[in-house]
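example protein:
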Amino acid sequence: MTASHGATDQADTLRQLAGRAKVQKEVPERFKLRDGLRVISVTSGKGGVGKSSVVVNLAESIAALGKRVLIVDANVGMGDICLRLGKEAPYRLSQVLSGERTLEENVIDCGTGVSILPAGMGVQQYTSLSPSERLSLLQGMMRLENSFDYFLIDTGAGISANVTSFAAVSREIMLVVTPEPSSITDAYALVKTLASRDPGLSFRVLVNMCRDAEEGTALFTKLSVITGRFLQVSLDYTGCILHDEMLVESVRRRGALCRLYPDAKASLGFRALAQKITAAGPNDVAAMLIEPVAGRKQWRNHELSS
């Protein structure tokens, strides 16, 4: 290696370190939202478990109880929240992140107590959000805190940086699983990934597309046994939603099942779920969205800057 080559390598390394330091500096030590605001990240280990449908119908059911709900569409999959509710995003989120438009201008009021912050941008662009863009989006959400009682974040599926980042900043994590073996396997992988970075996280498990309540309970028990054997995490059973063919019809009609077919068996499940969530307080875990605590892995700031 020549001296000039070595100097170039050293310069490149210093620039990279300086770049990382700049990103870290951009990330504040903590985000604190007002007391009483519930931030729930709805996530899953794999796609196809009906997670976006859960978000839409849970939001409608919570709003029916007199609460103001903002759906944050952080899902890069095909199940776009706006399409499901027959709405069109006024601007692309890229315009918000670039500063051309404010985040508030992109919020869609559905007129039912539910509002949407849509993704509204190409899949490739959204999956490659930079740390500063994720931070900008989170800061924008903070400016909306006085307008809502609940933030429901549809994170998408898997363990990408965007998914784990939004899950990380939530006060509560709802993990959606189905009776399919692959769903259980991928759910375990997601829990393992998140728990390895923050051992204090707890998860509320919702079993979707069940044949009956007994199947939901059995699946949760199975997942609890697996995680209890290998991981030190807290899993709470939040209930199940029964398989319902009317859900497909509601998607076709671009509306929430709970509003179009209030007596459908899945609608009853969503109403029960909403009542359970609103009756209970938020998890004691992570009173701060980003909370540096001595002796714990400081992964939340790292996750935003990686």
